Here is the input.
Amino acid sequence: MTSIPVLPEAAPKRLARLNRGSKILKVIIQAIQDKKGEHLISMDLRKIPEAVADFFVICEAGSTTQVKAIADHVRESVRQECGEVAYHDEGYGANQWVIVDFVNVVVHIFLPETRKFYRLEEMWSDAAAEEHADEPSPVFGAPLKSATGSPRKKVNKL
Here is the structure.
């Protein structure tokens, strides 16, 4: 009788904790900016024991068509640039609030009135929140510059 060789057990894979500099978070934010998502914030939930993810990324869109376009672009960008597919999504159809769940990062795309109604930011107010510019940079991560090369200032027009 021959014995069957026993393979050593592989160490279980651990999910790496994300941080604000994580590639998937940057790709999601850029994808939202590409499709003109507004009032974009990321919320760091890592210090909240009850949190279902490390980060929430929340934005709003002006129409149901734009909600769907942002969600689709986020899914595709993360798949292409990070090699990850969404674990789950919810809200396609009505497109008033679409959730794209990447396990460690959950993306929420709202119509403005739906966002005001659910007040997700208030519900998770213990999380550290960071606002992101509505306008994407020409070079990812680079500050916006004027034609002279100096940093461009945002001017509020009345």
About this structure: The domain at 23-132 is CATH 3.30.460.10 (Beta Polymerase; domain 2). The helical segments are 23-34, 64-82, 112-118, 120-123.
